[in-house]
């Protein structure tokens, strides 16, 4: 069992401030920041002054509010350059394939689409359309449905509420926003998403969202298998995907939400 590092109060307070600012839609006053974090106002002002000096936050004098600074932007760019989702996802997917003996993939949500970052093919399994870099409509895929179900209803409505019909790849699929809304309700109740022949005839998938510490869907893991697998077989695949989604979340965010 890993040894937990000794707490460093100042470092913890700084990280809490930066994390809170990162989750806001606009800069916030120091007093609001102190109330939200339950920290003494004097401590917040002192830490903000240090962060401002080093470029981690910027102060807007007209509104007396604070937002993230250039140093935080540079940190985010470094995060993107290092591609942590793909790097962390590869060994997790490999372990999932070993356990499930079916092909697996990792996807992220971009607007109304999913983009596939990693695919791990199981031995003697056919190639899938979910190759790295492929983009598919989120409402048709198990990974997309898993992530959409983890979003607030208002966010899903903002993405799809103005669409009268949704594109299909064949005869199957969710062709309307109302049908998608019903399916996402079912996904939330089950805890995982299912797709059966809606992307590729004869193949089905189960997927689980990978959530960050706030519960937001950072990605989704899925296993694709031959359609017609019984309930027991699908349940075993779901358990495998759930276990590895939790492991992926732990590696990315430090603890499963």
TrEMBL record:
- Coiled coil feature spans: none
Q: Domain IclR-ED, which positions?
A: 71-254
The cross-references to InterPro entries, in alphabetical order and at most eight, read: ArsR-like_HTH, GAF-like_dom_sf, HTH_MetabolicPath_Reg, Tscrpt_reg_IclR_C, Tscrpt_reg_IclR_N, WH-like_DNA-bd_sf, WH_DNA-bd_sf
For this UniProt entry, the molecular function terms from Gene Ontology, in alphabetical order, are:
DNA binding; DNA-binding transcription factor activity
Query: Which Pfam families does the annotation name?
Result: HTH_IclR, IclR_C
Q: List, alphabetically, the PROSITE patterns matched.
A: HTH_ICLR (PS51077), ICLR_ED (PS51078)
- Residues forming the HTH iclR-type domain are 8-70
Name the keywords, alphabetized.
DNA-binding, Transcription, Transcription regulation
Q: Which GO terms describe its biological process?
A: negative regulation of DNA-templated transcription
Q: What is this protein called?
A: IclR family transcriptional regulator
